Protein backbone atom coordinates (compact mmCIF):
# COMPACT_ATOMS: atom_id res chain seq x y z
CA UNK A 1 0.00 0.00 0.00
CA UNK A 2 1.27 3.45 -0.92
CA UNK A 3 -0.71 5.36 1.69
CA UNK A 4 -2.28 7.55 -0.99
CA UNK A 5 -5.39 5.41 -1.53
CA UNK A 6 -7.08 5.53 -4.91
CA UNK A 7 -5.64 8.35 -7.03
CA UNK A 8 -7.26 10.00 -10.07
CA UNK A 9 -4.84 11.51 -12.58
CA UNK A 10 -6.87 14.27 -14.25
CA UNK A 11 -5.73 14.97 -17.78
CA UNK A 12 -7.08 15.78 -21.23
CA UNK A 13 -10.01 18.10 -20.63
CA UNK A 14 -11.57 20.56 -23.05
CA UNK A 15 -9.05 23.42 -23.28
CA UNK A 16 -6.86 24.43 -26.22
CA UNK A 17 -4.03 22.66 -24.36
CA UNK A 18 -5.72 19.22 -24.40
CA UNK A 19 -2.95 17.50 -26.38
CA UNK A 20 -0.22 18.77 -24.04
CA UNK A 21 -2.28 17.67 -21.04
CA UNK A 22 -2.75 14.15 -22.45
CA UNK A 23 1.03 13.92 -22.83
CA UNK A 24 1.69 15.25 -19.30
CA UNK A 25 -0.95 13.09 -17.65
CA UNK A 26 0.06 9.83 -19.30
CA UNK A 27 3.64 10.27 -18.04
CA UNK A 28 2.43 11.16 -14.54
CA UNK A 29 0.14 8.12 -14.51
CA UNK A 30 2.96 5.79 -15.56
CA UNK A 31 5.30 7.25 -12.92
CA UNK A 32 2.73 6.78 -10.15
CA UNK A 33 1.76 3.25 -11.19
CA UNK A 34 5.46 2.39 -11.47
CA UNK A 35 5.78 3.14 -7.74
CA UNK A 36 2.89 0.86 -6.81
CA UNK A 37 0.39 3.71 -6.38
CA UNK A 38 -3.24 2.87 -7.22
CA UNK A 39 -3.53 5.56 -9.89
CA UNK A 40 -6.18 5.71 -12.63
CA UNK A 41 -6.64 7.97 -15.69
CA UNK A 42 -9.55 10.42 -15.58
CA UNK A 43 -10.44 12.67 -18.52
CA UNK A 44 -13.14 15.23 -17.56
CA UNK A 45 -13.99 15.59 -21.26
CA UNK A 46 -15.09 11.96 -21.35
CA UNK A 47 -16.31 11.22 -17.82
CA UNK A 48 -18.76 13.07 -15.57
CA UNK A 49 -17.11 14.64 -12.53
CA UNK A 50 -19.32 12.73 -10.11
CA UNK A 51 -17.43 9.61 -11.24
CA UNK A 52 -14.60 10.96 -9.04
CA UNK A 53 -16.54 9.93 -5.93
CA UNK A 54 -14.61 7.15 -4.28
CA UNK A 55 -11.19 8.56 -5.13
CA UNK A 56 -8.94 9.54 -2.22
CA UNK A 57 -6.92 12.20 -3.99
CA UNK A 58 -6.41 13.77 -7.41
CA UNK A 59 -3.30 14.68 -9.38
CA UNK A 60 -4.27 17.63 -11.59
CA UNK A 61 -2.39 17.33 -14.89
CA UNK A 62 -4.94 19.44 -16.76
CA UNK A 63 -3.69 22.57 -18.53
CA UNK A 64 -5.61 25.68 -19.53
CA UNK A 65 -9.25 26.50 -18.97
CA UNK A 66 -11.41 24.28 -16.78
CA UNK A 67 -8.27 22.60 -15.48
CA UNK A 68 -5.87 25.26 -14.33
CA UNK A 69 -8.22 28.18 -13.71
CA UNK A 70 -9.84 27.22 -10.39
CA UNK A 71 -12.94 25.51 -11.78
CA UNK A 72 -11.84 21.88 -11.36
CA UNK A 73 -10.21 22.86 -8.05
CA UNK A 74 -13.58 24.15 -6.80
CA UNK A 75 -15.33 20.96 -7.89
CA UNK A 76 -12.74 18.83 -6.06
CA UNK A 77 -13.17 20.91 -2.91
CA UNK A 78 -16.94 20.42 -3.04
CA UNK A 79 -16.29 16.66 -3.23
CA UNK A 80 -13.73 16.85 -0.38
CA UNK A 81 -11.02 15.28 -2.54
CA UNK A 82 -7.47 16.51 -1.81
CA UNK A 83 -5.77 17.64 -5.02
CA UNK A 84 -2.33 18.71 -6.20
CA UNK A 85 -1.25 22.28 -6.83
CA UNK A 86 -2.81 25.61 -6.01
CA UNK A 87 -6.30 26.30 -4.70
CA UNK A 88 -9.24 28.02 -6.37
CA UNK A 89 -8.10 31.64 -5.97
CA UNK A 90 -4.43 31.16 -6.92
CA UNK A 91 -5.39 28.99 -9.89
CA UNK A 92 -7.85 31.60 -11.16
CA UNK A 93 -5.36 34.45 -10.70
CA UNK A 94 -2.50 32.49 -12.27
CA UNK A 95 -4.62 31.85 -15.36
CA UNK A 96 -5.33 35.58 -15.71
CA UNK A 97 -2.15 37.26 -16.96
CA UNK A 98 -3.61 40.75 -16.52
CA UNK A 99 -4.62 40.39 -12.87
CA UNK A 100 -1.37 38.58 -12.09
CA UNK A 101 0.46 41.67 -13.34
CA UNK A 102 -1.73 43.98 -11.27
CA UNK A 103 -0.96 42.08 -8.06
CA UNK A 104 2.76 41.88 -8.79
CA UNK A 105 2.90 45.59 -9.59
CA UNK A 106 1.08 46.39 -6.35
CA UNK A 107 3.69 44.35 -4.47
CA UNK A 108 6.55 46.18 -6.17
CA UNK A 109 7.71 43.28 -8.34
CA UNK A 110 9.06 44.18 -11.79
CA UNK A 111 6.84 43.31 -14.80
CA UNK A 112 7.24 44.28 -18.49
CA UNK A 113 5.38 47.38 -19.65
CA UNK A 114 2.00 46.46 -21.11
CA UNK A 115 -1.33 47.73 -22.38
CA UNK A 116 -4.79 46.17 -22.64
CA UNK A 117 -6.11 45.98 -26.20
CA UNK A 118 -9.64 46.04 -27.56
CA UNK A 119 -11.18 46.65 -30.97
CA UNK A 120 -11.26 50.41 -30.35
CA UNK A 121 -7.64 50.74 -29.17
CA UNK A 122 -5.38 53.35 -30.73
CA UNK A 123 -2.95 50.76 -32.08
CA UNK A 124 -0.51 53.31 -33.48
CA UNK A 125 -0.32 55.08 -30.12
CA UNK A 126 0.30 51.80 -28.24
CA UNK A 127 3.00 50.81 -30.75
CA UNK A 128 4.68 54.15 -30.14
CA UNK A 129 4.35 53.85 -26.35
CA UNK A 130 5.69 50.29 -26.01
CA UNK A 131 8.12 50.24 -28.94
CA UNK A 132 8.77 47.20 -31.13
CA UNK A 133 8.86 44.28 -30.74
CA UNK A 134 5.55 43.79 -28.91
CA UNK A 135 4.10 40.47 -27.81
CA UNK A 136 0.32 40.21 -28.04
CA UNK A 137 -1.38 37.47 -26.07
CA UNK A 138 -4.77 36.27 -24.86
CA UNK A 139 -4.94 36.85 -21.10
CA UNK A 140 -6.31 33.40 -20.27
CA UNK A 141 -4.42 30.92 -22.47
CA UNK A 142 -1.19 29.00 -21.97
CA UNK A 143 1.37 27.14 -24.10
CA UNK A 144 1.86 30.29 -26.24
CA UNK A 145 -1.53 29.72 -27.90
CA UNK A 146 -2.79 32.81 -29.74
CA UNK A 147 0.43 34.78 -29.13
CA UNK A 148 2.07 36.91 -31.84
CA UNK A 149 5.34 38.81 -31.94
CA UNK A 150 4.80 42.19 -33.61
CA UNK A 151 7.99 43.31 -35.37
CA UNK A 152 6.65 45.69 -38.03
CA UNK A 153 4.84 49.00 -37.63
CA UNK A 154 1.09 49.09 -38.29
CA UNK A 155 0.59 45.36 -37.71
CA UNK A 156 -0.47 45.44 -34.05
CA UNK A 157 -4.15 45.29 -35.07
CA UNK A 158 -3.54 41.97 -36.88
CA UNK A 159 -1.95 40.44 -33.78
CA UNK A 160 -4.89 41.71 -31.72
CA UNK A 161 -7.36 40.02 -34.10
CA UNK A 162 -5.49 36.71 -33.74
CA UNK A 163 -5.41 36.84 -29.92
CA UNK A 164 -9.06 37.94 -29.76
CA UNK A 165 -10.06 34.60 -31.36
CA UNK A 166 -9.12 33.00 -28.03
CA UNK A 167 -10.07 35.62 -25.46
CA UNK A 168 -12.00 38.85 -24.97
CA UNK A 169 -9.12 40.15 -22.81
CA UNK A 170 -5.96 40.77 -24.84
CA UNK A 171 -2.61 42.11 -23.61
CA UNK A 172 0.13 43.90 -25.55
CA UNK A 173 3.48 43.54 -23.81
CA UNK A 174 6.77 45.31 -24.46
CA UNK A 175 9.32 42.85 -25.85
CA UNK A 176 12.06 42.27 -23.26
CA UNK A 177 14.75 40.63 -25.34
CA UNK A 178 17.69 39.77 -23.07
CA UNK A 179 16.67 36.15 -22.51
CA UNK A 180 13.79 33.98 -21.31
CA UNK A 181 14.01 32.00 -18.08
CA UNK A 182 11.86 30.00 -15.71
CA UNK A 183 11.88 29.04 -12.03
CA UNK A 184 10.20 25.84 -10.83
CA UNK A 185 8.70 25.89 -7.33
CA UNK A 186 7.78 23.01 -5.06
CA UNK A 187 6.60 22.77 -1.46
CA UNK A 188 4.19 24.44 0.90
CA UNK A 189 4.45 27.13 3.54
CA UNK A 190 7.94 27.70 4.92
CA UNK A 191 9.22 24.59 3.13
CA UNK A 192 8.54 25.98 -0.34
CA UNK A 193 11.72 26.03 -2.44
CA UNK A 194 12.65 27.56 -5.79
CA UNK A 195 14.44 25.09 -8.08
CA UNK A 196 17.50 26.02 -10.16
CA UNK A 197 16.71 28.53 -12.91
CA UNK A 198 16.51 27.31 -16.51
CA UNK A 199 17.42 29.54 -19.45
CA UNK A 200 15.43 28.82 -22.60
CA UNK A 201 17.11 29.35 -25.97
CA UNK A 202 14.74 28.57 -28.86
CA UNK A 203 16.12 28.10 -32.37
CA UNK A 204 12.95 29.82 -33.57
CA UNK A 205 12.39 33.59 -33.36
CA UNK A 206 10.80 33.15 -29.92
CA UNK A 207 9.62 30.38 -27.57
CA UNK A 208 6.37 29.53 -29.36
CA UNK A 209 4.18 26.40 -29.24
CA UNK A 210 6.34 24.68 -31.85
CA UNK A 211 9.55 25.35 -29.88
CA UNK A 212 7.90 24.20 -26.64
CA UNK A 213 6.51 20.87 -27.76
CA UNK A 214 7.49 19.77 -31.26
CA UNK A 215 11.09 20.78 -31.87
CA UNK A 216 14.27 19.19 -30.58
CA UNK A 217 16.54 22.18 -31.21
CA UNK A 218 15.35 24.35 -28.31
CA UNK A 219 18.22 24.59 -25.79
CA UNK A 220 17.59 24.50 -22.04
CA UNK A 221 20.50 25.70 -19.91
CA UNK A 222 20.68 24.74 -16.25
CA UNK A 223 22.89 26.17 -14.76
CA UNK A 224 21.40 29.17 -16.52
CA UNK A 225 24.52 31.34 -16.76
CA UNK A 226 23.44 34.08 -14.35
CA UNK A 227 25.75 34.98 -11.46
CA UNK A 228 25.06 33.12 -8.24
CA UNK A 229 23.97 36.36 -6.54
CA UNK A 230 21.56 37.24 -9.36
CA UNK A 231 20.14 33.71 -9.44
CA UNK A 232 19.51 33.76 -5.68
CA UNK A 233 17.86 37.20 -5.92
CA UNK A 234 15.52 36.03 -8.68
CA UNK A 235 14.70 32.69 -7.02
CA UNK A 236 13.74 34.60 -3.88
CA UNK A 237 11.62 37.00 -5.95
CA UNK A 238 9.93 34.09 -7.74
CA UNK A 239 8.91 32.56 -4.41
CA UNK A 240 7.46 35.91 -3.38
CA UNK A 241 5.64 36.20 -6.74
CA UNK A 242 4.16 32.72 -6.28
CA UNK A 243 3.14 33.36 -2.66
CA UNK A 244 1.49 36.71 -3.50
CA UNK A 245 -0.95 34.87 -5.74
CA UNK A 246 -1.57 32.28 -3.01
CA UNK A 247 0.29 29.51 -4.84
CA UNK A 248 1.00 26.21 -3.11
CA UNK A 249 2.23 22.69 -3.83
CA UNK A 250 4.15 23.35 -6.99
CA UNK A 251 4.28 25.73 -9.93
CA UNK A 252 6.51 27.69 -12.24
CA UNK A 253 7.29 31.40 -12.52
CA UNK A 254 8.56 32.67 -15.88
CA UNK A 255 10.69 35.79 -16.20
CA UNK A 256 12.59 37.78 -18.82
CA UNK A 257 15.91 39.62 -18.72
CA UNK A 258 16.68 42.82 -20.59
CA UNK A 259 20.02 43.65 -22.18
CA UNK A 260 21.05 45.57 -19.05
CA UNK A 261 20.63 42.59 -16.73
CA UNK A 262 17.29 43.61 -15.19
CA UNK A 263 14.66 40.92 -14.69
CA UNK A 264 10.88 41.15 -15.18
CA UNK A 265 8.38 38.57 -13.97
CA UNK A 266 6.14 37.44 -16.78
CA UNK A 267 3.55 34.95 -15.59
CA UNK A 268 2.93 32.00 -13.28
CA UNK A 269 1.92 28.47 -14.18
CA UNK A 270 0.03 26.66 -11.40
CA UNK A 271 -0.22 23.28 -13.21
CA UNK A 272 3.09 23.01 -15.07
CA UNK A 273 3.68 20.61 -17.94
CA UNK A 274 5.08 17.17 -17.18
CA UNK A 275 6.00 16.11 -20.73
CA UNK A 276 9.48 15.05 -21.85
CA UNK A 277 10.08 18.69 -22.93
CA UNK A 278 8.77 20.20 -19.69
CA UNK A 279 10.74 22.56 -17.49
CA UNK A 280 9.91 21.66 -13.88
CA UNK A 281 11.08 18.02 -14.28
CA UNK A 282 14.28 19.37 -15.88
CA UNK A 283 15.01 21.73 -12.97
CA UNK A 284 14.06 19.05 -10.42
CA UNK A 285 16.58 16.69 -11.99
CA UNK A 286 19.37 19.26 -11.54
CA UNK A 287 18.13 19.68 -7.95
CA UNK A 288 18.62 15.92 -7.44
CA UNK A 289 15.01 14.77 -7.85
CA UNK A 290 14.22 12.35 -10.67
CA UNK A 291 10.84 12.28 -12.43
CA UNK A 292 9.14 9.57 -10.31
CA UNK A 293 10.34 11.25 -7.09
CA UNK A 294 9.03 14.63 -8.30
CA UNK A 295 5.61 13.17 -9.18
CA UNK A 296 5.36 11.43 -5.81
CA UNK A 297 6.37 14.61 -3.96
CA UNK A 298 3.71 16.66 -5.78
CA UNK A 299 1.11 14.04 -4.87
CA UNK A 300 2.24 14.10 -1.21
CA UNK A 301 1.51 17.84 -1.16
CA UNK A 302 -2.10 17.35 -2.29
CA UNK A 303 -4.60 19.14 -0.05
CA UNK A 304 -8.02 20.75 -0.16
CA UNK A 305 -7.74 23.26 2.64
From TrEMBL:
Keyword ATP-binding listed: yes
Q: What is its main location?
A: cytoplasm
Q: What are the positions of the active site?
A: 17, 143, 278
What is the cofactor note? Binds 2 magnesium or manganese ions per subunit.
Record's InterPro entries? Answer: ATP-grasp, ATP_grasp_subdomain_1, D-Ala_lig_Van_CS, D_ala_D_ala, Dala_Dala_lig_C, Dala_Dala_lig_N, PreATP-grasp_dom_sf
The UniProt GO MF terms for this protein read: ATP binding; D-alanine-D-alanine ligase activity; metal ion binding
Q: Which reaction does it catalyse?
A: 2 D-alanine + ATP = D-alanyl-D-alanine + ADP + phosphate + H(+)
Q: What is its EC number?
A: 6.3.2.4
| Binding site residues for Mg(2+) 2 | 267, 269
User: Which Gene Ontology terms of cellular component type are present?
Assistant: cytosol
Report the record's Gene Ontology biological process terms: cell wall organization; peptidoglycan biosynthetic process; regulation of cell shape
Which cofactor is recorded for it?
A: Mg(2+); Mn(2+)
Q: Show the Pfam families listed in the entry.
A: Dala_Dala_lig_C (PF07478), Dala_Dala_lig_N (PF01820)
Q: Which residues bind Mg(2+) 1?
A: 254, 267
Alphabetically ordered keywords of this record:
ATP-binding, Cell shape, Cell wall biogenesis/degradation, Cytoplasm, Ligase, Magnesium, Manganese, Metal-binding, Nucleotide-binding, Peptidoglycan synthesis
Compartments (UniProt record): Cytoplasm
From the UniProt record, give the pathway where this protein acts: Cell wall biogenesis; peptidoglycan biosynthesis; Glycan biosynthesis
Broad enzyme group: ligase
Q: Which residues form the ATP-grasp domain?
A: 101-300
Source domain of life is: Bacteria
Q: Which HAMAP family match?
A: Dala_Dala_lig
Protein purpose? Cell wall formation.
The text of the family note is: Belongs to the D-alanine--D-alanine ligase family.
Q: What is this protein called?
A: D-alanine--D-alanine ligase
Amino acid sequence: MSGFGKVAVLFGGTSAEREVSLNSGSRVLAALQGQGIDAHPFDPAEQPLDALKGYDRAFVALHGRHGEDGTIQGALELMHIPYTGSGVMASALGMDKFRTKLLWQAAGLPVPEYAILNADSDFADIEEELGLPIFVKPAHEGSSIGISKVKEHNTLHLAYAEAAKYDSLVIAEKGVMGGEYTVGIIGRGDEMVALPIIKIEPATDWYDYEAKYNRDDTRYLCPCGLSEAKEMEIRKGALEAFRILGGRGWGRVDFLMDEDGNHYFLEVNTAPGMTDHSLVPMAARVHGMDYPTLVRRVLELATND
